[in-house]
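Q&A log
Question type: sequence-to-structure
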Amino acid sequence: MESRRLNYVPDKIPDPKKIPEGAEPVFQDVGESDHGIHYGLEERKEMTPEKRERYDWQMTKLTSMMNESGAWWQLHGGNTIDVVQIEKGGDYVGRHADIDVFVLRKDVEKLEEFFRAKGYGLFLKLWTEDRSRRVFRRVSAKDYRRGQGGLPHVLEIDERGRAKKDEDQLWKIQMDPIDIAEDGSMVDIFDEAGHLPKEWTEGRTVNFHGQEMHICHPARYLAYKIRSEERGYHDKDIDRLANLGVLTLQDVDDLEDVALTRLDKEQDEEKRAIVTRRLQRIRQIIQRNEQGA
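Response status: OK
Response body:
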């Protein structure tokens, strides 16, 4: 497959020779590179044999690189469902926009150097004011740690330090910096004053094609997922995870405490209704499976 560069936004292009490191121009994200591949769908797009082979390679390469970095990390997002299903003899849930990992905020500078040596750079994904376009901006480790209103990503770069899109390579990683408090609990990325249950920090290590892959606690992933807008594939992902036997009713109680504490502060009744419905559904699935065991 031919490698192609992402198109630059015309009014943002400075002279490449004058671009200091960490201040590359903004460019538009084009093609199947975001959750837009799922918008309006009740199910994730189907995983073809060719894409399954590429996902296997990408997930293995990411795991190898993260372990080589020596930094603390955990896989999260929909990829965690993939890994648990594959561990139990199943398959990928479908196609994903990118691969999601947690790292520690304090390790970002070290990871920037590590990824630069591997041919990757740090970027923030931003949106135009009218939300019609997604764009990425190359940033320093300092700005990456802060977020600056964008979603943090690691993208493959060319010899000039500019991002490129090559579907045959591991070209895009959503690497989310998090903090772990002195008591061992994760700081809630949606509520900096809140901490998540300490049991969620450890996660689990699984064997993925011969590599030691660290995945987040399933309730940690659901703490994000149950807040997602009402789209069909979100609910199907939640049902899949609830059916895999990796959640307990205590996990759901903890999840409810975290979710409702957030919502009490946000005072968003519409989101509260969505979250409450999803929590009830998760409990029903776990109870039904326990009774049928």
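Response note: The longest strand covers residues 120-127.
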